[in-house]
Amino acid sequence: MEIYFAKNGKQIGPIEFEKLDPFEISQNTKVWFKGLDNWKEAAGVELFEDYFINQNTIKILNKSHSDIPSKKYSFLNLFNIKSWHLFNLTKS
């Protein structure tokens, strides 16, 4: 799905939802995609529920697990981060 969002007073997009950086959009960022009547804050759009859950998970992982390799995280490698951490716990 292609979405548009507003950032620093400019319209960004279209961009594939799956390719969004996990911290590109905040809960009060205005978003629009085909099917929405008007621009809405992302927090009020069902599509972004998992996006913000994943965003919070990454924040927790970054804060509490400094042994995770430093890199830019995305939804696709969030599973790999959890797997890497679990693998290292079992190695200890």
Rg computed from alpha carbons, rounded to a whole number of angstroms: 15 Å
The largest sheet has its strands arranged as 2-1-3-4
Instruction: Count the E strands.
Output: 4
Identify low-pLDDT runs.
80-92
pLDDT average, as an integer?
75
Can you tell me about this structure?
This protein has 92 residues and is an alpha+beta fold. It has 2 helices and 4 strands. Strands 2-1-3-4 form a 4-stranded antiparallel β-sheet, with no helix packed on it. The model is unreliable at 80-92 (pLDDT under 50).
Describe the SSE topology.
Layout: E1 2-7, E2 10-16, E3 30-33, E4 40-41, H1 49-64, H2 75-91
Antiparallel strand pairs: 1-2, 1-3, 3-4
Summarize it.
Helix content is 36%, strand content 21%.
Please tag this protein with its features.
single chain, 92 residues, alpha+beta, 4-stranded antiparallel sheet, 2 helices
